Amino acid sequence: MLEAACRSPDHGALRPWRFITVRGDARIRLGEVFARARAQRDSSATEADLESERRKPLRAPLIIAVAAVVTTDHPSVRVIDQVLSAGCAAHAILLGAQALGYGGIWLTGSNCHDPNVKSALGLRAEDSIVGYLYLGTLLQEPPSRERPDPDALTVAWSGRGEAFEPVSAPK
Ligand SMILES: Cc1cc2nc3c(=O)[nH]c(=O)nc-3n(C[C@H](O)[C@H](O)[C@H](O)COP(=O)(O)O)c2cc1C
Predict the structure, then answer these.
(1) What is the pLDDT of residues 135-150, one digit of tens each?
(2) CB distance 106 to ligand 1 below 6 Å
(3) What is the CATH number of domain 2-140?
(4) Tens of pLDDT, residues 109-143
(5) Cα angle at 24 between 23 and 28, to 5 degrees?
(6) Which atom of ligand 1 lies at the shortest distance from residue 87's CA?
């Protein structure tokens, strides 16, 4: 899975990806990090909210936090390119997991952006956690989603100035 991630498109070969694996008891400690960060940023958080933060990492045996450790002053590679590359790496991990017969889900939320969480994971405030990948053996098939028709999302732009009808957002 991580080899697949390291094959991700990478503008400038900066290798901005970091893969932070959390398993076993470390998941309990990550839950504590989530709960402390929530308490600090949200004074209205109840004990039930904090308990829900504590339990989050316990939903799968392996969590991989995928981060972009960014070069902010690169002369030609913008930060967004580095973050997108980390997104590709996250997707490659999910595809790798599926190919190996595991299940996985990409989750984000406030714990991706909280500076205290980043710091606890060894990241700087300017780095991005692009997602937490929750990975494990599937207990049941996940519900299938309707997939869009690619044609509904695609226009062939000719540049000849013809009336252009923007593709509407899928319903
Ligand atoms: C960047 C990103 C962030 C996501 N964050 C969440 C999230 O926080 N919570 C959630 O339920 N699904 C989130 N999803 C969607 C799930 O990862 C997943 O795509 C969805 O459950 C449907 O599964 P499927 O894509 O295998 O059909 C996110 C997806 C992406 C790409």
Answers:
(1) 999 999 989 999 999 9
(2) yes
(3) 3.40.109.10
(4) 999 999 999 999 999 999 999 999 999 999 999 89
(5) 95
(6) 1
